[in-house]
Write a structure and sequence with these properties.
The structure is a homotrimer of 157-residue chains.
Chain A (H helix, E strand, L loop, with lengths): L3 H19 L10 E11 H6 L6 E3 L2 H13 L6 E16 L2 E14 L4 E16 L2 E11 L13
Parallel strand pairs in A: 1-6
Antiparallel strand pairs in A: 1-2, 3-4, 4-5, 5-6
Chain lengths: 157, 157, 157
């Protein structure tokens, strides 16, 4: 049972990450990452074929911040709420201080018509490191099944 | 990791609560609450605007029991099954013996046509206390995103 | 809190099981079961009425292997991806070395049109034993709410 506390800690990180998005505290979202980081939202098909193109791509905390500034000030999109369910947090291993974890997610979206629909389903593939005692994402890939994206993806997954 | 057992206990409470509803053991549902309690199912919009109106409101265990008696004997509604998924149980703090927790949920509903649909997505905001060694809800707010409620809400969320 | 490590272990088993299916490592799927085992995907209605008919039925590891060989070589069906969310893993008891557990699940399916839909919602009723230190399913019932199955069920639930 030596994996117990680590899975627990990784769950705490992912739960806090999800709550940050769902509760629209997006200004804090970049703080879940290390300064040098990769964040990608990428179709499963591209990952399977080794193709690099993703729907969102950021490779520094500054780019993550830019995204949120754009979302707040520049992007035009339908008002919406996200509700994440995550499940199956699995710690796959730890090497040189980098924890690999995999988690299933489904993002449910509610638009102004008040109906909740499945927006994006997939899995997180995370590389996590410890910084000043806190876990942070060094890399977060959101590999999604839902190739038909119904509305512009502005809010991170 | 001192939060570990507490989150674990809160998860056990919420999982038992959900199983009670999904397995149609609704006569036991009020027992998850303290005698003096608040149970509200309220739209996110109203919470954000500070408006009090909710879709379900009970402020005692007696009112919770009344609801179930009404459901069994008086209410007329389409037969249905609920299936809850919960995720992201987060213990936010504990003060004067009251634990605050937040949890994402989605209720899936199956009607007699055999299709399963998203019925209600949202988050639980819980105030939990310990009574004779058992955790109980002193307050349970179900703050929902899904403003378009497709069929009469009779069964608790 | 003596139930803590056991629920944790059961979660690890179920999470690994789900990942195996969602990541299309189906050749490993039978290894989650004991040699003598029962695997059933059965409608809730039949369980409630005590009727035996199920949508999938296997009563040995060999039959589980057969299923996967059939899926790979013989069955004709629409290409699809599964994404499971599980929630509410509850250890109900342990008797004579057999652990009883109950878990809610929803399987989301993505077809080639790229939309993700609710495919099958229900609960796992598991009988779990320990073999050489590893937990295995001796019996796994997938009791589903979703009586209208939209496409042929080939991939296990």
């Amino acid at each position: 049972m030596s994996q117990l506390p680590l899975r627990y800690e990784v769950e705490e990180l992912i739960h806090a990450y999800v709550q940050c998005i769902d509760d629209d505290q997006l200004e804090s979202w970049p703080d879940f990452f290390t300064d040098e980081c990769v964040y990608k939202v990428i179709p499963r098909e591209n990952v399977d074929l080794g193709l690099p193109v993703s729907v969102m791509f950021c490779d520094s905390k500054g780019m993550l911040r830019d995204r949120i500034v754009a979302l707040r000030k520049a992007n035009i999109y339908a008002p919406h709420f996200y509700r994440h369910l995550v499940s199956n947090v699995r710690v796959l291993g730890e090497q040189d201080g980098v924890i690999s974890a995999q988690t299933n997610y489904v993002v449910f979206q509610t638009l102004l018509d008040g109906e909740t629909r499945i927006y994006n389903a997939g899995k997180y593939l995370d590389k996590i490191v410890r910084e000043n005692g806190e876990l942070r994402f060094k890399e977060k890939l959101c590999v999604f099944d839902t190739n038909r994206i119904q509305t512009l993806m502005v809010t991170p997954i």
